[in-house]
DNA sequence: CGCACCTTTGAATGAGATCAAAGATGGTGG
DNA sequence: CCACCATCTTTGATCTCATTCAAAGGTGCG
């Protein structure tokens, strides 16, 4: 069940050198493990939930349903991500979270966050900064969907995914992307049919290569360029409280 | 210069009963006032900035510029809002902030946030919750722009503005909206021309009334309905740390 | 190996963009 | 106080990018 590793601690460790106490506090959030089957729903829009999660393994998606049957995918979550943070603002989940692959998550409840805030100011500040970075990525995504043509939106989504995967795996440039074209459409505000044509275009132009659901990046610079992508993975740390 | 009122304290006071110490800490953030002319830029995308602001008076907008000349407006800021929080995650502003009307803001720097986090866990938790609520609103906006037709997007924007104005002014239903149709377009991912046609449609259908830039809400329920709007202004407080 | 789901391609349609030009509005300086 | 000019709004005509509809291949899993 519990491993003495912590995905979240590893991630935060990129930004600051964690104290043992901090590492222990983060590890406590990952003391419980839950297996999730591909397709299973972890959180449902509108349903009560005070649970949060840290992703240990697998891919998940957060989405909302529109009145007209449409669906918007807000974010793809990867290992090391925190999920369901909005439980800290709302008693009812604003988004549905579904597993795209078999996944392992570590659930904890919001009272554990209360404890963290009370005793670890620096971790709290990091959590806030991470949340703000995520908000900024969401803003970038909005700009992409609101103000760029179909091809650039697809490019942006690929950049987002690749940039994040690179952290854990700097070498890999071929990735199994467990998203159907319909889902890519729901993330970019397009129809599956149009997604298909645009992906074909990117492949024809030698920017990506596709084999089934495996995507290989052939011309990262051109993709970033078409997407107008900004990497938001580095965060400012100079203002953080002293460790303690 | 300094007034002994705090917009932010008033706002947070809606959610919890603040202690004197908490009220004082928040007041300190608003000890300095700065006047901003309509059209003036407070923060510029890409430029260094460690300043944050609390809005005291006036309307402002946050936007990003796209490579192709397009612009996406992310958020309209009103009195009581915190602006420039992303300075806590990035040394360079990800968004440009511009005053839509003459405005008064209270600047403070991010080291003051450090102090707040060190000594006021409950305020820190509230700040986190507020940020998460804002992120959720951004997600709602993304769903609106990505997955609904032009008319519904305009409706959503109006709902967002009216819902927030209602807090300070529950009675008013006619509001001077200092946005050009071009700006409404930049917020909704539409052209000014199409915004014009959609607004006319909403007026023709008796949902709103327009006199110059003053908009009156005639059928709030129908507007909310068309927009698929969810009010995100209430936040959960049961998990917050005890005051102290 | 058969069925459900996904991808691919073609053709027709449509929502919103683009282009163009005529009113309205309001702030500024004379 | 008024006239002027810049900016914003409104409306029409045309165009285009993406949607919709339809149907033929693939793929993988039970």
Structure description:
The structure is a homodimer of 244-residue chains. With 244 residues, chain A is α+β, with helices and mostly antiparallel strands. Chain A folds into two domains: 7-122, Jelly Rolls, CATH 2.60.120.10; 149-227, Winged helix-like DNA-binding domain superfamily/Winged helix DNA-binding domain (Arc Repressor Mutant, subunit A, Orthogonal Bundle), CATH 1.10.10.10. Helix content of chain A is 42%, strand content 20%. Chain A contains eight helices and eleven strands. Chain A starts with 6 loop residues before the first helix and ends in a 17-residue tail after the last helix. At the A-B interface, strand 5, helix 3 and helix 4 of A face strand 5, helix 3 and helix 4 of B. The first copy, chain A, binds a DNA duplex (30 and 30 nucleotides) through helix 7.
Topology:
Two copies of one chain form a homodimer.
Chain A: H1 7-13, H2 20-29, E1 34-36, E2 41-43, E3 51-57, E4 60-65, E5 71-77, E6 82-83, E7 96-99, E8 103-109, H3 110-119, H4 121-147, H5 150-168, E9 174-176, H6 181-188, H7 192-204, E10 208-211, E11 214-217, H8 220-227
Helix pairs in contact in A: 5-6, 5-7, 5-8, 6-7
The first copy, chain A, binds a DNA duplex (30 and 30 nucleotides) through helix 7.
